[in-house]
Design brief:
The complex is a heterodimer of chains A (430) and B (1105). Chain A has helices at residues 16-20, 49-55, 87-90, 138-146, 181-189, 194-222, 227-255, 275-291, 308-311, 317-343, 351-354, 400-409, and strands at 59-65, 99-103, 105-106, 155-159, 297-302, 345-346, 349-350, 355-361, 376-379, 387-390, 397-398. Chain A is of the alpha/beta class and 430 residues long. In chain A, helix 5 (181-189) runs parallel beside helix 8, helix 6 packs antiparallel against helix 7 and helix 8 runs parallel beside helix 10. Chain A is globular, with a radius of gyration of 22 Å. Chain A starts with 15 loop residues before the first helix and ends in a 21-residue tail after the last helix. Chain B is α+β, with helices and mostly antiparallel strands and 1105 residues long. Chain B is 35% helix and 15% strand. In chain B, the strands form 9 sheets. In chain B, strands 2, 3, 4, 5, 7, 8, 11 and 13 form an 8-stranded antiparallel beta sheet that branches. In chain B, strands 6-12-9-10-24 form a 5-stranded antiparallel beta sheet, covered by helices on one side. Chain B has a 4-stranded antiparallel beta sheet with strand order 26-27-25-28, with helices on one face. The longest helix of chain B is centred in the N-terminal third of the chain and has 23 residues, at 105-127. The radius of gyration of chain B is 37 Å and the shape is globular. Classes of the chains: A alpha/beta (430), B alpha+beta (1105). The interface between A and B is large, with 59 and 68 residues.
Amino acid sequence: MGVDFANRRASRERLDAVSRRAVSRRAFLRGAGVALALPLLDAMRPLRGAEAEAAGPRRMVAIETNMGILPQYFFPEQAGAKYSATPYLERLAAHRSRTTVFSGVSLPGVTGAHAAEKCFLTGTPHPERGGFRNGVSLDQFAAEQIGNETRFPSLTLAMSNENPTLSYTRSGAPIPAEKSPRRLFETLFVQGKPEEIEARVESLRQGRSTLDFVGDQSRRLNRSLSPADRRRMEQYLTAVRELERRLHTAEEWEFRPKPKVDAQPPEDNQDPRQFVERSRMMFDIIKLALETDSTRIVSLFIDTTVIHNITHHGNRPEVLAELRGHEERQFDALNGFLTTLTETSEAGQSLLDRTMVLYGTCMGSANSHSNVNLPVLLAGGGFRHGQHLAFDTENNYPLSNLYVSMLQRLGLEVDQFSTGNGTMRGLEMA
Amino acid sequence: MRTPILSDARRGFPFSPFLMLVGAWFSGIWIASPARADDFPTRADAFIGRYCVECHAGDAPAGALDLTRLPRDLHDAEHLRRWVKLYDHVASGQMPPADSEQPTADERAALLSVLSREFIAAERAAADETPRLRRLTRAEYEHTIRDLFDMPGIALAGNLPADGSAHGFDKHAEALDVSHVNIAKYLESADHVLDYAIATRPNPPTIQQRRISLVNRGGFVAHVVMNGDGVLLKDKRPDPEFPPAAEQNHLDQGAHERWGSFRNGATVGLFRHEDESFNPYFIEHVTIYPGRYRVRTSLWSFQWDKGQVLPGRGTEAGRLSVVQLTGDGRGGQHPSYVLGYFDAPDTKALEHELHVWLNHNEIIGFNTASLAPTANYARPGRAMAFTGPGIAIDWLDIEGPLHEVWPPRGHRLLFGDLPLTEFDANEQPGVRAPRRVRVRQLGAGMNRPDPEPGVWTVRSESELEDADRLLTGFLPKLFRRPVDESVRQQYREIVAERLAAGDCFESAMRAAYRAAMCAPDFLYHIEPSARLDDYALACRLSYFLWNSLPDQQLTAHAAAGDLRRPETLHGEVERLLADPRSQRFVDDFLGQWLKLRQIAATDPDRKLYPEFSPYLQDSMLAESRAYFRKMLDGDLDASYLVKSPFVMVNQKLATHYGIDGVSGAAMRPVTLPADCPRGGILTQAAILKITANGTTTSPVPRGAFVMERLLGEPPDLPPSNVAAIEPDVRGATTIREQLAKHREDAICATCHRRIDPPGFALEAFDVIGGFRNRYRSIGEGDAAPRGSIDPFIPIGFKLGPAVDASGELPDGREFTDVREYQTLVAEDATKLLRNLARQWAVYSTGRAVRFADRPRIEQVVQRTLSQGGGVRTLLHELVGSPLFTGDDNPIEMPAEVLASSRNVEDDAEATSHRMIMTAVLPAVDSPVQAEVASVAPSETAVEYSFDEAHRVRVRVIGLFEPHRVDDLKSALAEFPEVLFVEIDDATAEATLAYAATSELFRNGNPEQIVERMNNRLRQLSGHTLGIQPPVATPRDQLERIEWTIRGLDCQACSLAVYDILQRMPGVEHATASFHTGRATALIDPTKTDRATIEAALKARGVTFE
């Protein structure tokens, strides 16, 4: 639904005083480590060749903030590896060699100002139109293929008091995001009740027995088919077996104890003005989820509507300064997240080297509601980073091509996704 | 690159080992082959060596085609395709070109005969490798379920992975792959279907009938109407209770809702078109129970003139759509589809009624489709300063769910007539009850779910016998052919196993049904490898014309074995085409053949084409569909594809085409003036939009479209080293000038002299299909006249260079404009007809048309031509042909079959006042009524007694005007536990007596008594009155302040101002009067002051005189 934004959300308080007040970070965040990292079951190991076997899985975290990022403090002037860091990128200086900054990119046809926030991972054009139907989001597309290799195919998260989400199913239905760090923690690490497990296992078993049955039916049909049709039917049988294997894996998960972490469940914080703190809490649990291989795919919607009014800064210096302060602290939080990922290693590489972290926003300038020249960066995950990939700011390069690159990096055999018809020019796998 | 020579004796291609060593047929030197002179390589080499190598060899061969390197392995589909292309070029005389040495007729014929023989042999060899087995497409899957379960609107396709496409259609066997994702989605989908189908209650859900307004509680329409993008009307005048927003907007939507401003039956007059932040919908009905609903609405239009309702410019159109709420119950925009466009006649209300299927959480959306985008929202003076058209929506009636039978047909398909009973765990120890999901009202709908009836489920006295009986009925329907006893046995086994495991009968059956719905027998079109049997033929027919499974009658013919009788087969074609389900064929086929599915793929540039709108786009789609339908129904010949004396248009499209005298949204045939270039698919706006990029046109994609889609001569892709032309809208050069340069290149010229001419002719039309003499430009150019563009749309474009739509066909025939081109191409009617035959052949059989099929296609074409050449005849001939039936000979169409449809007169068509975009359901006239819910026990009226001892002194909240005391008294009249004693108007302090013995007040301390009074009074007054403890500050210490508020002319706004004042600390009493426009506050000066209050009022949008 399009929204007259001024009327959309209640909270319009100015942030100055509160946001600077130090908020004690939650106990679980201090030195939180993993007591028990689950060994990968053989059945759960992806059948993805020697490279994956040796180095561990590939992962992806996709983050959108919805109120723009001030472009003048984000985009470097120079292209290539030797760009001078801008105020925001300065905050991520420690990860410069593991980060690629993009400019001159946008999602083709994704317009409609704030309406574009729901298309950041789907790239579906024209969310502002009456008959709009969203498409599958990057994370869900990937989760369909590789999600069953972990307990949770993906995590759809939001830091918000509203109900935004970045994740959409094939039919364009929004997947409700988990907003409570506490509930998320419990879902990930607190064992469910036996009867709940029982019910889920039963449902998975019935799914498997259905598949087993229809597999037999295809064998029966084969007898009356031509050789060519038998080969066609083979594809069906393969698909059934593959799904069976995935359900089997999912069933195994139900019996496995959830990983134990020596962190305490966090306390939820509802104050919209403390969005940076709340983002940090989400980041910390995401890190735990990745570390325990509970999931490999995460989407996180960081709702910064609370600063909506000051994003329409009209170039007033004092408002710009205030906004810049907030955004710098957001980049500090991101920096903290990237740092914790580098501090954990897996099969000789840091977790960050195995995890793509996409961070960006749906508006190039929130001041003018522009949906082009999006500030976006990609950190980690196994690319040749350390550069500023500058594209034409007049005639933008499709950001959706980056999504194709990311899917390929996850090991998916795709050359097209949404409006992306190829991989990101200039971004090579490491 | 593959080795060009492949020797494979098994496949009958004797190649010399010597040649293999050389690694090419020849390398500039002709080497005589030792093989027989009539062999494929020998004959081909001789011909090519003599007539072709001059151009088609060497470093830069013509058309980038080096024939010396054209591989001869015809088993490779791509190689075969290229050879067939060569064959066609030689056969048509196109090659060798006229200016080079020509082969003799004998040489030509000999080559063609050898090639033809080799092609057919190669295809026969490949036949074993070509699958016939194909999966249901998403659309086929959805329609099949909809028809089988009688759930005509259940949404399934959107949740299945997208299908591929081959040879232009998703129905092609090679396009329909399956992965584990598909299977997972089929499982999900089966569960969803069974959830919808299985009845879980003894009686149908209560039929709820509700009249709702577009100004919904909490909705956007109310919000924009408060700000002047619309008005509330009563008796075709502004609603006196809600004056149009003027300099001062209406304050506080919540206050207006409490006051009931939007619930007094007023009509909504809307000026604003949907846009980025405004999507109107009727949110007070949010579907809980999926099913059929009757929707009625009343629309009219008017001219608004700064407060006055005047006659307008004519009939406008409103759009109804179906919108799916998002998961959290807030309004959403997807997935949604347009129901249709409905006439809103000038100042005269017109009621529209339609039956639709609504899924869970779906609501009805609305748009002022024919209005230009305009917003008074933040404009000075708002509605009172605006003059322009508006559309009035009196109301929307919605009634449903309407079930013709209970349990519904989908349930009966699964469980027959087994009785529904309440599940009793004691009676069936150890049996698990079926799973039930509680339905909820997610959104802001006023409709509520019925009380849960407990767990009701089908009951079987002899479970396995019933299972067998039910499966005997269900499986053949689902699988679309008879099912062996042994197969049924396997499904029965599932039921037995589940029963043994403790499932109840419903759950056990459900497991079997779910398996069947994921089985290949259902998901694939199974055609026996030998002769196509009658069941497969019935399926071909129904999936061709309905995109769905055969119905009872068609299945009966297959079972009786008489489907191949000419009068049966062709009679069935007629019957299927006459059924509304055949619209799926028109939509699905055109969606792919003419690429109508891509109508929204590009977005016309708003500066260049400001008149473009969703209504125009939907009208384009509707035109192409209606026209094709007309061709089919009238059995019109193929020349109508490119040229026609009539068009199918509505008012929107007629205006776009410059045709006068068409009023209303409905598509209808209109005879064209003689010189009009419209008529025929070629010049339809939809085609012209699809073949442009939203900003510019190019003759190349348009020419390629005409060649590939209409003429059946797909051009080859350009060589990879040739850059495409960059569009330029600055106005300096035309695309034609740019292309001329391109064509100077000899390599390009050979193809472009064929591709470009249709595109040149179509240069007469812009990217949205408007006719043009000059290009629109953003930069240079002359001022553009408005033409037929709506006066409320600002124009920013200019007129650039003139359009040149002339050209020359490859055979030398010239044309000066699009009309002449139409005439020329209409002469190729046979070519157009042949192409349509091929397209239908691929679409209906899911297989490419092979070289060997050409004689059969030709037979279909010739037989059709001999009967007048109509496209309906063609469809019959195709269905009767061996291509479709698998027989050796055509099944001829009896002459009388078409007689009835041909004689249908179209001018009798009554204007329906609407343009329907999706299938509309037949009316449900006598729905089964739900049992009347048991009436709540009536409360016995109690007389209470009051005494002096039980009185409280309170302050009444909400008395913003003197007359509100009357409202207080009438509210208290419904509050028997309280008695009004007296009130001080100046301070709103009242004395109330209460019945101390009543349930409500018994044992209450004074605070609790005031609290309980307050709660009940708020409830009784719609939250506009309340009770608080009296003011503590003595009266003489209070100070009175007064303001004159600008534009305070509405009661609800008075309430809003009062609310702001009353809620401020230090304000002990306040008033705000829409009669006097004045507000007062009685304040405690130690706690607040005038400035503080004024600041608070200003912050909420109040302005002072």
